[in-house]
Specification:
mainly alpha
Length: 156
């Protein structure tokens, strides 16, 4: 049976993980919202280019859209695993509380906590992967605008 001090100590680690996960989820949300806004702009620009008969420009926008969608998929995966880990940590806290009355729950709490931390680590892996490809996306965008500028100059 856990004492109140031991129970308090057991709750501290999951509580810290919940706070940390919340900050990561907030960061992921900001990145995802920026990507969604960017995608809307590129879809509109692609539509306008296609409507105006500027095929090369529309193709260039399509390439950029695919790149951003790939990044958004990584952020979505990071979101999922971070939220799954956060849910697991919350359930860990619940099991630790139940451990006061049912000591068998403590073993499940430990197992769930380890799985939750692994889930968060997987989420961080997706986040890191997205950050690494973010710069390549910017470089592609630079090429895109260079292509558009060259096409616009030849049209004049």
């Amino acid at each position: 049976m856990l004492t109140k001090l031991e129970l308090f100590q057991a709750f501290v680690a999951p509580a810290i993980f919940i706070s940390a996960a919340g900050l990561f989820v907030l960061s992921l949300n900001a990145r995802l919202l920026a990507m969604v806004s960017r995608l809307r702009v590129f879809h509109r620009e692609k539509h306008l280019a296609a409507s105006a008969g500027r095929k090369q420009e529309a193709i260039a926008f399509h390439s950029q859209i695919e790149s951003i969608e790939n990044r958004a998929e990584k952020i979505k995966q990071a979101f999922f695993f971070m939220l799954l880990g956060t849910l697991g940590v919350m359930l860990t806290c619940l099991l630790l509380g139940l451990g006061l009355y049912a000591p068998d729950a403590l073993l499940f709490a430990v197992i769930l906590f380890v799985l939750s931390v692994l889930s968060m680590m997987i989420g961080m892996g997706f986040y890191i992967a997205e950050v690494f490809i973010a710069l390549s996306s910017v470089k592609e965008e630079e090429k895109l605008y260079g292509l558009i500028d060259s096409l616009n100059l030849t049209d004049e």
